[in-house]
Amino acid sequence: MPVNSLEAVVLSHLPFEDLGSLRPALDERGFTIHTIDVTTAQFPLPQTERCDLLVVLGGPIGVYDSAGYPFLDREIEALRSRLAAHKPTLGICLGAQLMAAALGARVYPGSNGAEIGWHPLLLPASTLQPPTDWFAPLLAQNLHVFHWHGDTFDLPAGAHHLARTQLYENQAFSVGNYALALQFHPEVTESGLEAWYVGHACELHQKSIPVTQLRASAYTHAPALFKAASQFWNLWLDYIL
After folding, report:
1. Do residues 240 and 88 lie in contact, with contact meaning Cβ atoms separated by under 8 Å?
2. Fewer Cβ neighbours under 10 Å: the N or C end of the chain?
3. How do strand 53-56 and strand 89-92 relate by DSSP bridges?
4. What was the pLDDT predicted at 1?
5. Is the pTM of this model over 0.90?
6. Residue 230: φ, ψ to 5°
7. CATH number 3.40.50.880 is the correct assignment for the domain at 6-240
8. For the chain, what percentages of helix, strand and coil (3-state, to nearest 5) are there?
9. Three-state SS for 39?
10. What is the average pLDDT value for the chain, to the nearest integer?
């Protein structure tokens, strides 16, 4: 690895829930990317301490499921250590919930049921303008972002509330200039979601959500999300690095 190159470590829970649109932004900046399957990883993971950026991706289990999935507690420990050191960290969906838990907040099943599909982000109730310039592309008028979660979390102490939806109040938060947690999925692409429809087929069947409906919505909304997310990723990376 070149001396001056940047290293991103990605903690993955499912192969098809990947970096998506974030990958090109990291490639353009010369990041070397190492992906770790945390479901089979041997903890501790020193890579999570020394890397320039840690990204924790989504998955279909809950933070409170550690009795069945013991690696979750080890992930939280790794996140707690990294966040205490104020090192750049991004969590998406389950990753955001793990970050909230590492920061001492409660994570629990949402009372409004699963939020699956394309919905706009809203400003926090007490805010009239975007909470921060780099987040603004995701709050653009008529933009819909992708959601797939049933759990939610309380806002950690000292965190900056960035967004909500009609169903769930806490959709995103930041801490200082080093941590960002996103309950939704800005990284998804229209083609990439095809693997999600197969991988999560049982949940879609259980919840009576037609794949054709999700696919049609992706056709409508994914191109605009990709454009907005690409702008957002670059602004955020400029901010934290």
Report:
1. yes
2. N
3. parallel
4. 40
5. yes
6. -60, -45
7. yes
8. 35, 20, 45
9. coil
10. 96
**In contact, 9 and 1? CB cutoff 8 Å:** no
Instruction: Write the DSSP symbol of residue 136.
Output: G
Indicate the length of the chain as a whole number.
Answer: 241
| pLDDT tens-place string over residues 181-194 | 999 999 999 999 99
Amino acid at 104: G
Is 109:62 a contact under the CB 8 Å cutoff?
yes
* Amino acid type, 192: G
Question: What is the Cα–Cα distance from 221 to 226, expressed in whole angstroms?
Answer: 9
Buried b (16+ CB within 10 A) or exposed e, 159-172: bbbbbbbebbbbbb
Cα 230 to Cα 228: distance, rounded to the nearest angstrom: 5
Q: Which residue has the tokens 């960002």?
A: 180
Phi/psi at 144 (5° precision):
-110, 135
Q: Is the per-residue pLDDT at 3 higher than 60?
A: no
Q: Phi first, then psi: what are they for 180, rounded to 5°?
A: -140, 125
